[in-house]
Amino acid sequence: MTATPLITTDRTYLQSPDKLTIEQVRMLDIDPDIMRFITDGKPKTGDQSKQWLETKLREYQKNGYGLMPAYLNCNNEFIGWAGIKHLENTPKIEVGYRLHKDFWGQGLATEITLAVIEYARHQLGINELVAITALENEASKNVLRKCGFEYVADSFCYNTEVAFFELKQ
User: Fold this and answer.
1) Tens digits of per-residue pLDDT, 27-53?
2) Cα–Cα separations (whole angstroms), residue 94 to 26, 82, 142
3) Beta strands 67-72 and 12-14, pairing class
């Protein structure tokens, strides 16, 4: 661990949003399996990844929260990112995550998402949270349900049809 984590779980830790690097973002953005529900499997270009990261860092500077790099406690391996941000063109706060496919199916997304919710509530005072996922992404829908989110409706965000969830109180 190179810096004090903002969030820790049994198996992971998340660092400040300003610790997320372009190399980490690219690792996820170039994999068609990881991008299948985001860009229909098309890897992002280097410029797209750089622009995305710059936008997320500006949002962090403005809001004081953002998307945080996530690592395994046991060996400090980068596994993805998670955190909160404003849902596109709304004042709503969205919980999001993206993990490298090597770490899918291990319960890590649920573990991290629950920790992000706790952090948002207890450290930032944010109680109203939403989440979205691709309509066909059943794995993410299951993660959200396990974390206390309820399906509200299909919606249109980020130029695509999505399933919209709100966190139960």
Assistant:
1) 999 999 999 999 888 999 999 999 999
2) 22, 11, 17
3) antiparallel
